[in-house]
Amino acid sequence: MGDLEGARQLFDEMPNRNLATWNAMLTGLVQFECNEEGLDLLSQMHELGWLPDEFALGSALRACAGLRSAAAGKQVHGYAAKSGLELNVAVGSSLAHMYTKSGSLEEGEKVIKQMPELNVVAWNTLIAGRAQHGYPEGVLDQYSMMKIAGCVPDKITFVSALSSCSELATLGQGRQIHAEVIKTGAGSIDGVLSSLISMYSRCGCLDESVQAFTESASKDPVLWSAMIAAYGYHGKGEEAIELFETLEKEAIEVNDVTFLSLLYACSHSGLKQQGVKFFDAMIEKYHIKPRVEHYTCLVDLLGRSGCLQEAEAKIRFMPVKPDTVIWKTLLSACKLHKNEEMAKRAAKEITQLDPHDSASYVLLSNIHASGRRWEEASTVRRLMKERNIKKEPGISWVEISNRIHQFCTSDKSRQDSKELVLYLKELTYSMKLRGVGQWRWLVGA
Question: Is the entire prediction scored with pTM above 0.70?
Answer without folding.
Answer: yes
